[in-house]
Automatic annotation (TrEMBL):
Name of this protein: FCSD flavin-binding domain-containing protein
Occurrences of domain FAD/NAD(P)-binding (ranges): 32-146
Natural source organism: Rhodopseudomonas palustris (strain ATCC BAA-98 / CGA009)
Any GO molecular function: oxidoreductase activity
Boundaries of every Flavocytochrome c sulphide dehydrogenase flavin-binding domain copy: 355-420
PROSITE patterns xrefs: TAT
């Protein structure tokens, strides 16, 4: 009896124990994983799937950038603690077999399982991993727009916006007023705005600008590491930072970039620099593919970061609704390891492990003075829940803060090596 190739392959798979294994793909030479986004989420998944499958999975990462600028530690650049070059990273993932397509993903055809690129070509997938990060909701602050961001930068996406914040900060004279419009929850990097306030104050203090002021108009009545930040502002920059919650400003009514004013329910503040950090949502490609819910972010299965809307797609990082985990690079990198394990399991039958997630967010409040918050997370009742957490204490001695500062620098070196090379 002759057996054809299909029967032969089926026999081999049966011998290998994979026939009947749910979700294991057969019938094609190599299963294809396509990753959209080369940030901490996407690049880490691409690397780990390619590296650990040792050529058994074809991995394509779609990311227009050749060099990724990290938002994380961009505040250290603003605070003269890092050069801009030191937060720029080229991709060195080719050695693992990751194919980097330097284009924008224009659309996803979920029925055909393919990604349409900006040049009109299509990239087919067996599993798609989405990590496009966030988009700014410009219209969440009346008077603000993409054009207004050239005058009143948000600096919440890396690169040109970060440089503009730095340029404006460095040009200020003593006696200047900076107004920050802080974002509502949920947004990228919960302690980030307050770390930024701290490093801006550090720059002003170093220049002897004792008459300058930073006014923070917050739509929230509390924020991450609030007691720690407020203690540090008092200690390092007394009288310089004025934080106002909605009870104090009555509501943020809008900005006028031409007049350089910010209006609240109670007053119109004339500023020399305005940093508007609006509300945020999942990146456009995820929204247009119908992967978001009413929150503007993507619901996922807490056990593996699979989209709750499409079983062939995983979503991680800032674009996802990751329960108790904040939107951070640490979190995206941690979720990426869970996704890589789950994707390989589905496509090659490799062993999968229960999801375990972790996060730490360090914030620089002054030179050699850094605080942190973090935790471990696991799936619980359909959500990613915090299992244990920790936070720096107020009143800690300088030695601990110096050690935490060194940890922060070590973390950055380690995570960027893990993501990009
Ligand atoms: C000021 C500031 C300070 C921060 N500090 C810290 C910190 O200290 N620690 C920390 O852990 N986190 C920090 N963060 C948060 C951190 O930067 C983000 O959480 C992290 O970058 C999210 O990773 P991501 O992979 O989900 O998305 P991103 O980093 O945004 O990456 C998404 C990528 O997808 C690409 N992309 C988007 N759409 C498409 C498309 N259609 N086609 C192809 N590619 C696409 C983009 O070009 C981008 O490169 C900070 C953020 C800010 C703003």
């Amino acid at each position: 009896m002759r057996i054809n190739r299909r029967q032969f392959s089926a026999g081999l798979l049966a011998a290998a124990g994979v026939v009947g294994m749910p979700g294991v793909l057969r019938a094609q030479a190599k299963p294809r994983v396509v990753v959209i986004g080369g940030g901490p989420g996407g690049a880490t998944v691409a690397k780990y799937v390619a590296r650990d499958s040792q050529g058994a999975v074809e991995v394509t990462m779609i990311e227009p950038l050749e060099t990724f600028v990290t938002c994380f530690h961009s505040n250290l650049y603003l605070g003269d603690m890092r050069s801009f070059e030191s937060i720029c990273h080229g991709y060195k993932l080719g050695s693992y077999g990751v194919k980097h397509v330097r284009q924008f993903a224009a659309a996803i055809d979920r029925d055909k399982k393919e990604v349409k690129l900006a040049d009109g070509s299509a990239v087919p997938y067996d599993r798609l991993v989405m990590a496009p990060g966030i988009d700014i909701k410009f219209d969440s602050v009346p008077g603000y727009s993409e054009a207004a961001a050239e005058i009143m930068p948000h600096g919440w996406k890396p690169g040109a916006q970060t440089k503009l914040v730095k340029k404006q900060l460095d040009a200020l004279q003593d006696g200047a007023t900076i107004v920050m419009v802080a974002p509502p929850n949920p947004y990228r990097c919960p302690p980030g705005p307050y770390e930024r306030v701290s490093v801006m104050a550090k720059v002003l203090k170093a220049k002897g600008h004792t008459r300058s002021k930073i006014i923070v108009l917050d739509p929230k009545d509390k924020f991450s590491k609030m007691a720690l930040f407020q203690e540090c502002w008092q200690k390092h920059y007394p009288g310089m930072v004025e934080w106002m919650d909605p009870k104090m400003h009555g509501g943020i009514k809008g900005v006028d970039p031409q007049a350089m004013t910010v209006t609240t329910d109670f007053e119109t503040i004339k500023a020399d620099m305005v940093n508007v950090i609006p509300a945020q949502m999942a990146g456009k490609i995820a929204r247009e593919a119908g992967l978001v819910n009413e929150t503007g972010y993507c619901p996922i299965d807490a056990t593996n970061m699979k989209s709750a809307i499409d079983p062939n797609i995983y979503v991680l990082g800032d674009a996802s609704i990751a329960g108790a985990m904040p939107k951070s690079a640490f979190a995206a990198n941690s979720q990426a390891k869970v996704v890589a394990n789950a994707v390989r399991g589905e496509l090659t039958g490799s062993r999968t492990f229960p999801a375990r997630y972790a996060n730490t967010c360090w914030s620089v409040v002054a030179q050699d003075d850094t605080v942190k918050i973090g935790g471990r997370y696991e799936p619980k009742d359909g959500k990613i829940a915090e299992i244990e957490g920790f936070v720096s204490k107020t009143g800690e001695d300088a030695g601990i803060r110096l050690q935490t500062s060194e940890e922060n620098m070590g973390w950055y070196a380690g995570i960027t090596a893990d993501i990009f090379s």
